Amino acid sequence: MQQFTSLDYIKNSYNARISQIAEERKMGKKIVGTFCLFVPDEIIFAAGADRIILCGGKNDTVSIAEQYLPRNICPLVKSSFGSIVNNGCSGVKSCSHFGMVDMVVAENTCDSKKKMYELLGDYVPTYVIDLPQRPDSPEALKYFLGELDKFKGAMEHLTGNKVTVEQLKKEIESSNETRKLLHRLYDLRKMDPPSINGVDVLKVMQKQYFLSTEEFKKSLRMLIGEAEQVKTEGAHKPRIMISGCPMSGGNTKVPEIIESKGGIIVAEESCTGTRSFWDLVDESKNPMQALAERYIKIPCSCMSPNDRRIDNILKLAREFKIDGVVYYTLQFCHGYNIEKYKVQQALKKQGIPMLAIETDYGDSDVEQIGLRVDAFMEMLS
Ligand code: BJ8
Known about the structure:
By secondary structure, the chain is α/β, with parallel strands linked by helices. Helix content is 48%, strand content 11%. It is globular, with a radius of gyration of 20 Å.
């Protein structure tokens, strides 16, 4: 597979981003930490704040969190919480940006996150957006719009800046530009074989909410420019779509196994994949209304019913000419684990094989997953 210089550039962007945030803080800019796609970046940026993702993908801080939280909750929640409470006070190294936020903007999604946010407030000011979880009910959109209005007020209070309609429109345009670039990148994965592998794309996606939007867009343009030059050729490899829980920065375990066993990941139906950018915000509408309409439709498993997600999976499977789906769940993520059944039934009807993998951030099951993926690839070949 082609080596891209832009991927090294993206990989090495961590230190520059940390310096940028430190500099912004010195100049009085507020930094907001987020954990979820339901928090609209556009409102944060329109208030003149910067944003950085705090979802943990590393195993190192899980044991720190287990001093406070039950062991039987998902590793993403434990890793994130462990990184924040750790903040350099134990021997474990966690990423420095966890200690650099002025406010966390959280959201009522799954139970583990919701309850973790209640504890988080002791360490960093935490604002929670309440999320209606029956998105198709007539009251839900109105309620969510009200919540986003309150959130806008909280951002104005934090930064001392008024969020104007013009500023919101500008930020919506900018975020849509990012979404369109991601569509271009994913279009390149529709080729057979694609010009870029799935592990590399995942590492880029993990930087989406870490880098500034300008830096992320610049990185994407560089990568697309390089990938578009590649003349793809070679034997067909099983085309895999990953579907399920997000894979936060530091967590590439399962995609690495899949691609080391001869598969090629061409799409991810996850929050570190298509869910983050597939739908654009309607630029012709009142900006707050348009944001509420777009964000409430994110097909997270905390929503009920969540048939929209099944429809998306089938649509993506067709568009990306998927040979098989790897249904990926983090241990104790009940929402995605329970939805597995419906997804499997829907894929079965279409004749698309699915392999379910439930795992954590540790490496004790790497060999066992490898054996199962091996058998799956053999079946697809
Ligand atoms: S929109 S998927 S980013 S909530 S894996 S913490 S769901 S128990 S991360 Fe998520 Fe927003 Fe939904 Fe996306 Fe809970 Fe599951 Fe853990 Fe999860």
